[in-house]
Amino acid sequence: MNKALRKVVIAGNWKMNKNPDEAKKLVEDIKPLVANANCDVIVCVPYVDLTNVLAAAAGSNVKVGAENCHWEVSGAYTGEISAQMLKSMNVEYVIIGHSERRQYFGETDVTVNLRVKAALAAGLKVILCVGERLEQREQGVTCELVAMQTKIALGGISDEDMKNIIIAYEPVWAIGTGKTATSEQANEVNLAIRETVAQLYGKAVGDATTVQYGGSMNAANAAELLAQPDVDGGLIGGASLKPADFATIVSAASK
């Protein structure tokens, strides 16, 4: 972390977990544990939970995000939710390009870019996910691949827009597997992402961009990962559903 240059952000990604009542209770349990955090705290939750979570988080330091949005304002897109719909609920953040969206639902670098632009146009802040599969890491193309994903995702995005974008590096092979990149591996790729942003927008924007790590960060490994200079927080999966574990990660990021 380098808090002198950029924000540190811990964001929970609940994925397809918790009904509205369970979601309300989880936020109520989390709030007192993170009330004194010296970092930004976000929970990104299923659409059906947003109303309850927004109400539960009101007046606290816990910010609320969604897990995806469509690139069109409205139309014949059965099952989709627009960025404007999220904004109308006072949702602040949205995750875009998560590896599970890419793996299971046909998300591409091009549709990620469309969603990023739509989210920003609606006034949302974006957590943009990039990352490689195991075979790509073994082929030694991780940094090139992540740089390409970053460049395509940010196509048509202005310097000013970058103030509303967080980038999350999530190695696909470490999502939900219990495997984690070493702190050095995580920092290497986060630095490559930052250098790509600097190449596109200049060093000042690169230095100011928050780059999270999102591959099975948990209560046990968070402190080591967050001690790296280019790891500016975490996009937390399973551990974000456990209040004590999530609070431990927030505490590590608050130092």
CATH topology: TIM Barrel
Number of domains: 1
| Spans of at least 5 consecutive residues with low confidence | none
Strand content: 5-15%
Q: Please give the CATH class.
A: Alpha Beta
Per CATH, the superfamily is Aldolase class I
Number of strands: 8
The computed structural class is alpha/beta
Helix residue percentage: 40-55%
Largest sheet: 8 strands, parallel
Distance from N terminus to C terminus (CA atoms, Å) equals 9 Å
Which strands sit side by side, in order, in the main sheet? 7-6-5-4-3-2-1-8
The overall pLDDT average reads 96
Coarse morphology? globular
How would you describe the overall organization of this protein?
It is a single chain. The chain is built from 11 helices and 8 strands. It has one domain (9-253): Alpha-Beta Barrel (TIM Barrel). It has helices at 20-34, 50-57, 83-88, 99-105, 109-121, 134-138, 142-153, 183-201, 203-208, 222-226, 243-253, and strands at 9-13, 40-45, 62-66, 93-96, 125-130, 165-169, 211-213, 233-236. The chain is α/β, with parallel strands linked by helices and 255 residues long. Helix 3 (83-88) links the parallel strand 3 (62-66) and strand 4 (93-96). The model has no long low-confidence stretch (mean pLDDT 96). Helix 1 (20-34) packs parallel to helix 2 (50-57) and helix 1 runs parallel beside helix 11.
